[in-house]
Amino acid sequence: MPVIYHITTASEWNDAKEKGFYESKALKEEGFIHCSEERQIPDVLNRYYSGKTDLIQLTIQTEKLTSQLIYDWSNAIEDTFPHIYGPLNLDAVINVENL
What we know:
Layout: E1 3-9, H1 10-19, E2 21-22, H2 25-30, E3 33-34, H3 41-48, E4 55-61, E5 68-74, E6 79-85, E7 88-89, E8 93-98
Antiparallel strand pairs: 1-4, 2-7, 3-6, 4-8, 5-6
């Protein structure tokens, strides 16, 4: 069961549960939801979420995604990251963990 991870806030996750799907700000601005592999999480937390509170980590089962999953190369980080090109269907989220 391949999984990927997404960091968000508890309030954004609660909004998603009310709407029935999750859309990040990046989806609207860049066309995809940023995700990570497990090994990438510490660096992502350090680079983008340092000092932020109310964070949660979504564990996403990739086989359940209804939107397209593409692994894109990041020149800035020199690594490949999973991106979800569309809304995240809630039933693909198999675990929610407070950070």
